[in-house]
Amino acid sequence: MATVIDGKAVAAEVIETVKNASQTLQTETGVTPGIAVVIVGEDPASQVYVASKGRKARECGFHSVEHTLPESTSEADLLRLVEDLNNDPSIHGILVQLPLPSHIDESLVIQKISPEKDVDGFHVINTGKLTVGDIDEAFVSCTPAGSMLLIERVRGGDLSGLNAIVIGRSNIVGKPMASLLLAANATVTVGHSRTPDLPAACRNADIVVAAVGRPEMVKKDWIKPGATIIDVGINRIPAPERGEGKTRLVGDVAYEECSEVAGAITPVPGGVGPMTIAMLMANTVVSAYRAAGRTPPK
Ligand code: NDP
Q1: In which pathway does it act (predicted)?
Q2: Residue whose CA is closest, atom 19 of ligand 1?
Q3: Is residue 157 in some structural domain?
Q4: DSSP letter string, the chain
């Protein structure tokens, strides 16, 4: 049976490091890391994410500000708020919760965030730095960065000689994940909805990162024995066995059956999810160190 990769435990270690770094920065320079989270509209899932980001930021000793704007907020008003936050020296990380209402151009808003405060790592300057291998200078998108940390725990930092597949090619998960694996010397395949024989491509992989958004799509017979599986997917499915109308969370990987052949696997929940928020806090403390003219801790 596969080793279960405990994302909660690794995330707790990251948060502990962030707390200490935040404390040291405050003591030595008087600078408190500051994060601003902006949410537009009333999407319940977004509200849960924003609340948990705020809680975690306070736990890390950050100055945390939340801007909750009505669904009817205009694009111009949102851009003005982002500009104000860009100019606010007490804020080192700006996060605009996605998705935005359809009348607002998401890309325009993300590109408005100062790259130095783009702790989500979505700005083209940061994705560009990642793509050219300038990883220490970039803010890397939090979910792939967290996934990479979990891979390092199992496989070490140098993936030379290993084949990896990333299933999914989104700008926030699949593509940055592929760049990180490549930077760690893995031989990388990126699968997507037009890939003709995904199971065959997957069977060749020592590392499988599934970021698709399809419940339990990756099956046991796709997995090379001993492979490391990182399941990014978060899918809510009906769970009638828990009672009428009940649901449960599953990943993009059929967890039970794939555990029988994999070497190591992340659970859902409790795998990649907690890492995402931990990496957001890590990026924010790094931004605060840079703003204070200090070298951020590793
Ligand atoms: P997107 O919907 O943006 O991208 C999904 C990708 O999967 C696309 O590249 C798409 O291909 C590909 N895909 C869809 N269907 C298939 C298929 N049948 N076979 C092969 N490839 C397919 O999703 P995200 O990248 O934003 O998120 C992916 C998953 O990760 C979701 O479940 C999301 O909830 C979860 N997630 C989890 C996070 C966490 O913190 N754990 C954070 C972010 C996301 P194509 O490009 O060809 O359309």
Answers
A1: One-carbon metabolism; tetrahydrofolate interconversion
A2: 193
A3: yes
A4: -PEE--HHHHHHHHHHHHHHHHHHHHHHH-PPPEEEEEEES--HHHHHHHHHHHHHHHHTT-EEEEEEE-TT--HHHHHHHHHHHHT-TT--EEEEPSPPPTTS-HHHHHHHS-GGG-TT--SHHHHHHHHTT-TTTSPP-HHHHHHHHHHHHHH-S--TT-EEEEE---TTTHHHHHHHHHHTT-EEEEE-TT-TTHHHHHHT-SEEEE-S--TT-B-GGGSPTT-EEEE---EEEE-GGG-TT-EEEE-SB-HHHHHTT-SEE--SSSSHHHHHHHHHHHHHHHHHHHHTT-PPP-
